[in-house]
Amino acid sequence: MKNDEELLNIAKDASKLNYAPYSNFNVGACVLFKTGNIYKGSNIENASYGLSLCAERNAIASGISNGENCIIKVAIYSPNKKLCFPCGACRQWIKEFSNDNENESVKIILEDENNKIKVFSINELLPYSFKI
Description:
Blueprint: H1 4-14, E1 28-33, E2 38-42, H2 55-64, E3 71-77, H3 88-96, E4 107-111, E5 117-121, H4 122-125
């Protein structure tokens, strides 16, 4: 299983594969599922901003469409902004595909201003989520 640094490096590579001609804000994400499989994604913009897709949701959708259903870790990287936290919609997506029956919350892996890894839980970032 990949460690946090390896997952962040995959997210860094994914950030180079984006399509962001409107914002020029590049983001890459790497999602580790319970099976041990990893999926990456980059942000893909659209002239109609509401149709744009964040890197996190891109990676999660790739995993789900390949039979995954339980996220363990999400690494997010942007060369434009350190500590590039997921947006509210991505936080909800991460929570949706987490397993609340386990004591461990999904870990969000980011890089800070000093190029150090910072880890947050999805429960820290979204304490009152929608969950049925």
